[in-house]
Amino acid sequence: MGCAQWTHPAWQDRQPNPRERLRGYANWCNAVEGNTTFYATPTAKTVESWARQTAPDFRFVLKLPRAVTHERRLRDAEPELREFLAAVEPLGPRLHALWVQLPASFGPTDLGALWTLLRGLPDGYRTAVEVRHPAFFEDPRSRERLELLLGRAGAEWLPFDTTVLFAERAGSPAELDAWSKKPRLPRRTHALTDHPIVRYIGRDDRGATVAGWRPWVTTVAGWLREGRSPTIFIHTPDNAESLSLARLFHAEVVAEVPGLDPLPEPAPTGPMTLF
């Protein structure tokens, strides 16, 4: 369970050491999306710090640099990819998956480039691919081609579920901003591997967010019973409550699958007005 980031102004009293915010976050969740790696490849020193602040079973799902996915569109990007893989090597087993987030313009005619990238990765890397082109959701033949490619490469299709966000008109600046940036695509719940990854975004209203994830609680519980090991990331438009919501989602899954490993137990803190 995790969030889209490991630091937020609303979480400051849960992350008392400003130099080790990740360590504070890891007392609440055991996975995190690595969105910052999309904008810049971190230094080895930075990645070593991430490793020191987290347990060996903590999961990083790191987004490939935009130079690879958006600027070069997976073509002739070997130097940038090698630099990235070398930089994140200190994470060791914490690097749960490489997240290949593709632009909305990356469609069925580009699948050859995706196949070349996935087959060219060194052994030992798990991959999760997020597509946003409507054809992969609306055209059965395009969907089948993508699933076949991912299956042959041993990669997962990473869904970003925005259906609750777009279910009603945006009612706040944060929701309006999310509407302008997030893809509007159908919900997808089919896993291709033993390590499915889901990104879910709700709304400002906590009740709507929780009600909207009920199908995912059922799906995740089913995956666990099948022996899969899913990773779920909870978002809201401003993410202020996502830390506590991630723990609530986990608690709802535990109610369906007793005996599931618990999340870390954070040290007691004073009450937070936003939670």
From TrEMBL:
<dbReference type="InterPro" id="IPR002763">
    <property type="entry name" value="DUF72"/>
</dbReference>
<protein>
    <recommendedName>
        <fullName>DUF72 domain-containing protein</fullName>
    </recommendedName>
</protein>
<dbReference type="InterPro" id="IPR036520">
    <property type="entry name" value="UPF0759_sf"/>
</dbReference>
<dbReference type="Pfam" id="PF01904">
    <property type="entry name" value="DUF72"/>
</dbReference>
